[in-house]
């Protein structure tokens, strides 16, 4: 199993866990892990020649980064987590 698949599985799992009631520290951990994971995915996509995918992953890294938080509200974040997590799972099979 390559590192890209492992990153996608970990990120999808964490994003789906965000749909549950978790302590605030968990969400901060998810933001940090997501930032690192999406940057790694962007780098790998760029090296493979998938520039559009690398831009998407960089955008997700910016969205989830923990420094300048983007406040969307719990309901919207749940939708974002569900969509991004679902995309990561589907991308494992495409």
Would you mind describing this structure in some detail?
With 94 residues, the chain is an all-alpha fold. The protein has helices spanning 3-17, 24-47, 51-64, 74-91. The model has no long low-confidence stretch (mean pLDDT 93).
> What is the tally of helical segments?
4
Helix proportion range: over 70%
Q: Give the biggest beta sheet.
A: none
Strand-residue proportion: under 5%
Globular, elongated, flat, extended or rod-shaped: what is the shape?
globular
State the end-to-end distance. 15 Å
Report the average pLDDT across residues. Answer: 93
- Content-based structural category: mainly alpha
Radius of gyration: 13 Å
Query: Low-confidence runs (pLDDT<50, min 5 residues)?
Result: none
Number of strands: 0
Secondary-structure element order, N to C: HHHH
Summarize the structure.
With 94 residues, the protein is mostly helical. It has helices spanning 3-17, 24-47, 51-64, 74-91.
SSE topology:
Blueprint (H helix, E strand, L loop, with lengths): L2 H15 L6 H24 L3 H14 L9 H18 L3
């Amino acid at each position: 199993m390559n590192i890209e698949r492992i990153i996608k599985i970990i990120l999808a799992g964490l994003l789906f866990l965000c749909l549950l009631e978790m302590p605030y520290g968990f969400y901060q951990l998810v933001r940090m892990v997501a930032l690192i994971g999406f940057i790694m995915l962007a780098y790998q996509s760029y090296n493979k020649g998938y520039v559009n995918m690398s831009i998407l992953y960089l955008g997700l890294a910016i969205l989830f980064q923990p420094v300048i938080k983007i406040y969307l509200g719990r309901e919207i974040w749940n939708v974002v987590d569900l969509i991004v997590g679902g995309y990561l799972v589907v991308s494992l099979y495409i």
